[in-house]
Design goal:
The complex is a heterotrimer of chains A (335), B (348) and C (336).
Chain A (H helix, E strand, L loop, with lengths): L14 E13 L5 E13 L3 E5 L6 H8 L8 E9 L2 E2 L5 H7 L4 E4 L3 H4 L6 H13 L3 H14 L5 H4 L9 H13 L5 E5 L7 H18 L2 E6 L2 H7 L2 E6 L2 E7 H6 L4 H8 L5 H7 L26 H5 L5 E4 L2 E3 L9
Parallel strand pairs in A: 3-8, 3-9, 6-7, 7-8
Antiparallel strand pairs in A: 1-2, 1-4, 4-5, 9-10, 10-12, 11-12
Helix pairs in contact in A: 4-5, 5-7, 7-8, 11-12
Chain B lengths: L4 E11 L6 E12 L4 E5 L6 H9 L6 E6 L2 E2 L15 E4 L3 H4 L6 H10 L5 H14 L16 H13 L5 E5 L7 H18 L2 E6 L2 H7 L2 E6 L2 E7 H6 L4 H8 L41 H5 L5 E2 L5 E2 L4 H7 L5 H14 L8
Parallel strand pairs in B: 3-8, 3-9, 6-7, 7-8
Antiparallel strand pairs in B: 1-2, 1-4, 4-5, 9-10, 10-12, 11-12
Helix pairs in contact in B: 3-4, 3-5, 4-5, 5-6
Chain C lengths: L2 H28 L5 H6 L5 H11 L5 H13 L13 H36 L4 H15 L2 H15 L24 H8 L2 H38 L2 H8 L4 H30 L1 H6 L5 H10 L3 H29 L6
Helix pairs in contact in C: 1-14, 5-6, 5-9, 5-11, 5-14, 6-9, 7-9, 8-9, 9-11, 11-14, 13-14
The chains are: A alpha/beta (335), B alpha/beta (348), C mainly alpha (336).
Chain lengths: 335, 348, 336
Amino acid sequence: MHAPVAPGLLPGRAAALKITGLRVEFPTITGQSKVVVRDLDLAIGAGEIVGLVGESGAGKTTLTRSILNLTPTPGRIAAGSVCFGGLDLLRLPERDLQRMRGRDLSVVVPNPRGELNPLLTVGKQIVNIARVHLNLDGKAAQVVALDMLRAVQIPDPERRMKAYPHELSGGMAQRVVIAIALVCSPRFIISDDATSGLDVTVQAQILALLRQLVRERDSAMLFITRDVGIAAHFCDRVAVIYQGEIMELAPCEALFLSPRHPYTAMLLAAFSHNPRLRRGWSGPDTAPRQDGTQPGCVYAGRCPRAQPLCVGSKPVLGEVTPGHWARCYFPLETA
Amino acid sequence: MSPVLEVEGLYKRFPIAGSRSVVQAINGVSFSIGPGETLGLVGESGSGKTTVGRCIVGLIEASAGTLRFKGANISMPRARRPRDLFGKIQLVFQEPAESLDPLMRIGRSIEEPLLTRGGSAVERRERVLRAVEQVGLRREMLDLYPAELSAGQQQRVGIARAIITRPELIVLDEPTSALDPTARAEIIELLMKIQRELGTSYLFISHDLSTVRFISHRIAVMYLGMVVEQGDAAEVFAQARHPYSVGLLSSVLLPHPHLSIEANISLKGEIPSPINLPSGCYLASRCPLAEERCRHAMPPAEDVGGGHLVHCFRHRDVARYDRITDTFEQFQQEAERILGIHDGLPAA
Amino acid sequence: MNLLLFIGRRLLFIAPQLLGIVLVSFMLVKSIPGDPAVLMLGPTATPEAIASLRNSLGLDYSLPVQFWIYLQHLALGDLGTSWQTTRPVLEDLLQRFPATLELVTLGLLTAVVIGISLGLASAFNRHGVLARIADFYGLGAGSLPDFWLALVLIFVFYTLLQWVPAPLGRIDIAVIPPNPITGFLTVDCLLTGNWEALRSALGHLLLPVMTLGLINAGPILKMTQSTMEKILQSDFSHYQVLCGIPHRMVVRHALHNALPSVVTIISVLYGYLIGGAVLVEIVFSWGGAGQYAVQGVLNSDLYPVLGFVLFSAIFSLFVYLFVDIIYFTIDPRIGH
C-alpha cells in the first residue's frame, strides 16, 4: 500500500516528473525477489531541486536508472509509473525513450573520467549529443558545444574542445559531464552523486555552477547524494530514503531543523560529536536488518523508538504537517 | 613531554619514468606528535598527505629529512628500522575491504602481525581476543571472512590488526571516508575510546574537516606537499590564518541549511600538478590575496602565537578579512537543540 | 610524442632484437642431435670421409666461432646452403616464403572477416541467434585440429564433389605459372594478366585458406566478443545509453575501444601462422617456408632452419611495429 496522494508538490506547482508506486525487484538465488525500490511516490515540480539522501545500498542508483527505464540487470520494474510530460516513461517504446534521454531528461554522473569515452575528444562527445538530439549538422553542433563549454566555465574552451578525457582534471571532467547533460536544455535532470569524487573546494565550485545552470534553464532536478551536508545547502526539498522507501520528505529547512522520522534524526545525529546524542538515536547494532519481507516498518529493527505496532504493520508516508511527510506511526515532536 | 614522533624537513620526490621531471610529492614538511595526541592532517587529493603517512610507517623512503620516533632515527624504510620498533607504528587503511585478505578468516588476519614475533599460540589467541573485544567485535566473527562483514565491521578489523602489536603511534589514512555517516561516527568514537584507554598517538589523515575537527588535538593543513598552517585544532578552525585553510573550511557543508561558513576568501580553480612547482607560494595562482612578492618567494613559517604556524605573507590580512566563527561548534549546539529535545527517548 | 619519433625509436631496437633471436635459434638448432655429415654421406660413408666433410663444413670449430662465421656470412647476405636442395637458402626462401605468406595472409583475412563479424553480431544482441552460433563456433573452432579440418574439406570438396583441384601445390601442373615478380602467385598473375593461371591459383588456394580461416576465426571471435562485452558493460558505454545515444553508435564506439585487443590477437596469430600453418602446408603439398624448415629440422639441415627463423622473426617484428603504430593512432593515451 502506498499513500493515496502523491507526496507533495509545493502549492501551485505543476509536476515536471511524477513517480507513482514505483517498485523495482531483483531476483535472488533463493528464487524470491529482493525489492530494491518499494512503492515509491515522488513528484518533482518544474524548476524545483529535490534532494534524495540515503546511505549506500538504499536504492538510489537503481531509482535513477529506473526513472529512465534503464533498470540495471537483472532488476526489473514490477509496478508503478513515471509520468513525464504527459507520458509514462515505463511504458514508452525504447525508440522514443532513447530520443528523450539526454534531450528531455539527462543525468549528471560522478567519476567523469571513467564515464567519458577515452578515445574521443571531449568536444566530439558533446558534439555527438548535440547532433543526435538536436538534429544539428556538424558545424552548428560544434558551435553549440563550444558555447556549452563556455557556459560551464572551462577556461580556454577552444583548446579544451580538442582535449581527451585523460588530459582533464577531475573538476574539469565534471564540468564536461555537466555540459553534456545540459547541452539540450532538458526539462529534468538527475544528478547521481555527481560531486562525490571531488575535493571540497572544487565541489563548492561545481555545485554553484550546477545550481546556476539549472536555475537559468528553469529545469527540475532530482539531486541524489550520500552527503547530507550538500543536500542541506543545495535542495529545495529533501527526501530521505532507506531500503528503497522514502522515510521522510519535506522542504529543506523543515527536514533539517525539525526532522520527524527517527531515521533522519539518526542520520543527523551521526554528525554530532556528542556520543550520548548519537547513541540515543542509533538503535541496537546487532538488530537483524529487515529485508522488507516482514510486515512492519523497514526501520523498526534499528529504531530506538520502535513499538509493537511498528513491527506488526507498515506505516504509510503520511503528511505530518502541510508539506512535511514522514513514514512513521510516532513522528517526532518539533522544537 | 617529549614527542612520540618528530618529522623534520621531509621531502619526497617521485621520478617520472622516461622523463626528466619529478613529482614533488612532499616539499619540506615538519611537525611533531605528542604522546596520546591526535594530529589531524588535512588536505585535498594530491596534497601529499598520504605520502607523508607512508613515509612515517616506512612503506616508502623519504628523499630528504628526518623522522624520529621517541628520539630514535627512523628515516629509513621499514625493513631497515631497529627491530625493537617493529609494531610500534601501525597503519590503518582507507579501504578496509582491500586491506584484508579476502581468503583469510578475520581471526587469522588480526593475528598475522604477531606471527613474525614469536610467542605461543595460546598467547597470540589471547591477544587476538583482547583486541577484538577492544574494537567492539564479537568473538564469533573471528571465523568469518571479510566479505561477510559490513564496511564498518571491516574497518574495526583493520583497527584490531593495528592495535594488536600495542603500537604507540597509529597512522590512520582516511579510515572513515569509505563509510556511511553512521558507521563513520562509530569508528571515530571507537578510535577516541582506544586513545583514552591505551594512550596511543594518532596521525589522522583525512579530507573530511568536520571529522578531523573533533578527533584532533592539533591540525596541520597540507597543500601541494607543504604544511601551510598548523596549530591547535580549535584555534585553527576558529582563526584560520592561511587563505587555503579558509577556503577549505568555507567549502565544508554542514547538514544545517542556515549554517554555512561564510568567508570573503574563495579559492579559484583546482590544485595544480605537483610536477614543476612554481617558485613562490604554491597557492599564489588560486589565492585572491596574492601579490607580487607571493609569486617570487615562498613565505616562511611564522608563529602567530601558541605554536600556531602559518606560511603566508598576508596572514594578518586573512585574519582581518575573515573572522570565521567556529561554525562547527555552532552546528554541534544546534544538533543538540534539534535532536536533544527528544532526549530520554526511545520510549515515546 | 610524434608518430615518426615513435617509429624511429622502435626501429632502433629491431637490430639488437634480431641479433638475440639469431643467437638463440643458432644455439637451439645446434643442440638438435644428429650429425649432418653422417646424414649427407649416407650409411656407407667411411669415418675419414665424414671427418673431412665435418672439417670442410666448419663443424670442428667451437660453437661461438661457428656462430661468428655464420654472422659474417649473414652480413654479406649469405644464409648458407641447404644440402638437401643444394641451393642457397636465400634463394629457396625467397621462393617459398611468399607462398606461405600468401596462404597465411588470405587465411587470416578470412578469419578476421568471420571472427569480427560474428563477434560484433553477438555483442550487438547478446540473446540473438547469431550470439548463440558465435558461442558454439568459438567452442568448436578452438577444439578442432587444422590438418583434420583440411582433410575433411579435401574429402568433401575434392573427393566427393570435385569442385576444387587436387590438393597438390599452388597451381595445376598443366598451367604455366607467370614469371615471379613479387613471389605471390595471385599478385603475379594479376600483374601479368595471366587469367588462366589466376583461376587455377585461386582454386588451389580455396581449401587451405578456408581451413586456416575457419580455425583461426575462433580466437578472433572470442576476443572480439569478450572485449566488446566488457566495454559495453563499462561505465562510459552505460553513460552513453543514459545520454540517449543510439545503440548503433554505442556499439561503434565500443568497437573503437575494442580494436587494440582485437588487433593484438590478429597480430599474434599472424606471426604464429608463418610456422604454425605447416601442417596445412603439408596436407596441401604447398611447398611453403614452414614445410622447408621442418624438412631442415628432420634432416639436420641447419641453414634452412636458421634462415626460416630469421625471415619469420623479421616478419613478426614488422607486424608488431605495425600494430604499435595502430595503437598509437587509436589511443590518444599512448605516448603521453
